[in-house]
Amino acid sequence: MSLLLEAIARHAGERAQAPALVSGDRTLTWQQLEACLNELASKLQCCHGRGVALVGDNGLPWILADLALWRLPVRVVPVPVFFSPDQVHHLMAAAGISVVIGESAAVGDFGAPRLLDEELDLAVTELPVAGADSNPAFMAYEKVTFTSGSTGQPKGVRLSRHVLERTAAAVAQALADVDLQRHLSVLPYATLLENVAGLYAPLLQGVRVHVRPLSQLGFNGASDFNLFVFLQQLQVIQPQALILVPQLLLALVLAAEQGLPLPADLRFIAVGGARVAPDLLRRADALGLPVFEGYGLSECGSVVCLNRPGARRLGTVGKPLDHVRISISDSGEILLAGSGMLGYLGEPPHEGPVATGDLGRVDADGFVHVEGRRKNLLITTYGRNVNPEWVEAELLAQASIAQAAVFGDGLPAIVAVLTPRKGFTWAQVESAVAQVNQQLPVYARVQQLIASREPFSPDNGQATANGRNCRAQIASVYLHPAPHHCITEAPLTMTFFQQLQAKTEAARQHVLSAPVIQAVQQGYYSLEGYTYFLEQAYHHVKHTVPLMMACGGRLPEEKEWVREALREYIEDEYGHQEWILNDLVACGIEREKVVNNRPALAIELMVAFLYDQIQRQNPMAFFGMVMVLEGTSIKLATAMGKLVQQRLALPDAAFSYLYSHGALDQDHFAFFRDLMNRVTDPADQEAIVHSANVVYRLYGDMLRAIPLTSEGQADAAA
To answer: Over the chain, what is the mean pLDDT?
Structure first.
């Protein structure tokens, strides 16, 4: 019997009623899991010696079918949910598939499903076989995992049960001292990383595995991700361990930086699948997130190196696990021995060490440094070697950049083709690149930017099914020759306004992620919520001119140019609190009631903070408030106002404040940007940044207190 099945049997004997697998409201104890596997194995004798495709989303049917097939001499091929129809067809033909198993709906895409277990909704279908030669008999268990590589057609890696179990056991051993009880599977089980390290390893340890369909974790297709759905599930499940790719780690870090709650007992967050920017790991450290970078490849059964408690070094992928031996070739390529594949489908059996294709080194303490793909190494016309994955990882750690492809081989400068993240402007992308450039050596800095016409995707041939860049295709579209009209020079230094944007990004997201914004967009908004917002606006807007006057009175003579700018601001802003009162009257609210009410605590603190900064600290702190309120108004006021007006059927007279501080305020913000770029004193700059971060936080707290309809509250929570 296999090591994994022996462990399940042992757990069933030692703690029969303890939970092993949890999916929604259904739990399987260790005893039930073993009994279920025994029953399923007898029903799967039709798979004996055949190629079996395992289809469907993460869930109990997938897990139980996968484990039950371990008892049989079969070739098991998980079918990734993100594969295109053409790729699935290629997979089925290349692997000699004659049986499909999984949830009945997924199986039904291949033929008429026959139910094996009605309660689990687990079904099977057998495919017609052209001839005996096309349906080879498999004498031992093997799993084939398809990697997307850099071309459109995925490549099948054949792995023995022995290699898979050795890898899972090595991961379990590395985490033996972490004391885990709950693991949440976040990545698809059809990817080897989650299958081996997120299912087999926890089962070996006796750790409870929580599984949810990917859509319930916030995933919608290959690239769309709802962070708030994900965070809600984290709060419900309270996992202690997760496996994330870098983009999911970035989302988690951004959420934590905004003050959103995370599980209280997170003990181990593994991150891998792509290079991780050291700055992102440092941000995670600053938040107290237990993040540990690892490294692996399908040809060795997934994980081969892992940072862990007591053996962690930032910027490395950790030390090799016990089941592998690592060496570096004369050309700098990482070689792995001790746990290799059987071979690639359609190719001769593999013998000897596995050449990873990755450049790297092992430091004196045994930590492994991965420095990029050998085939992707670019050499500029000035003779400098640059690994594009390094630069791309730094770019992708920025919230405004969704995709990045870096080029420079034979070019005089490094060029990046970038896709902005939804909701961000190209100016914010340029600011992010400038911030990254400050962290890079001169020879690796991005000097030209190209905006992608559309996201890189399998449909346009610019990305593989699992999201990796197809560099040759991207280069052919954007660089051969480069479309001149979409090239911009990347800023190599940041203006103070750009620094201000970058240094307040996390706090700004606290405002933009307030549930009320999503509720308004989806029509779940009430008159009570709108008038609450206006009342709070009145209580801070009535202080705008007094704050400007206080600031101007405290400025030294050498800042007369700032005082002149304040004079213009005062002329523009004087009396705006009266507009708000008129809007409230148009909504049916008594003027005197608003004037006599106290503001919400967040607004009272915000105003008090600004007066204190001006009087006791640095009067330039006032401009932190301008950054928040004018920037937020431009981004949201007009669009949100129109949605609220349409929903509540209010007259135009109820929206004079919002509409005057929305899209029409662009000139004000341009004036503010130019003013900030004249601020050169580091003390003034620090005061403005600090003030903006505090005001973003307090203003976001006010937005979070706006009452919503019951539908809006439920939707925001989801």
So the answer is: 85
pLDDT in tens, 234-284: 988 999 999 998 888 988 988 888 777 788 899 999 998 777 888 889 889
pTM for the full model?
0.64
Q: DSSP assignment of 420-480, as one string?
A: EPTT--HHHHHHHHHHHHHHS-GGG-EEEEEE-SS---TTTTSB-TTS-B-HHHHHHHHTT
The residue from 443, 478, 494 where one domain ends is 494
Please calculate the CA angle 31-34-37 and round it to the nearest 5 degrees: 145
For residue 255, count CB atoms less than 10 angstroms from its CB and return exposed for 0-12, middle for 13-18, buried for 19 or more. buried
On whether residue 508 sits in a domain, the answer given is yes
Residues 367, 384 within the same domain: no
Whole-angstrom distance, CA of residue 468 vs CA of residue 476: 16
User: Looking at the DSSP assignment, which residues form a beta bridge with residue 452?
Assistant: none
Nearest to 448 by CA among 494, 408, 477: 408
Residues 50 and 98 sit within 8 Å (Cβ to Cβ): yes
Q: Are residues 585 and 652 part of one domain?
A: yes
Q: What residue numbers bound the domain in which 85 lies?
A: 1-140
Rounded Cα distance, 639 and 240, in Å = 40
Residue of higher predicted confidence among 483 and 67: 67
DSSP 563-608: HHHHHHHHHHHTTHHHHHHHHHHHTT--HHHHHHSPPPHHHHHHHH
CA–CA dist 302, 169 (Å, integer): 12
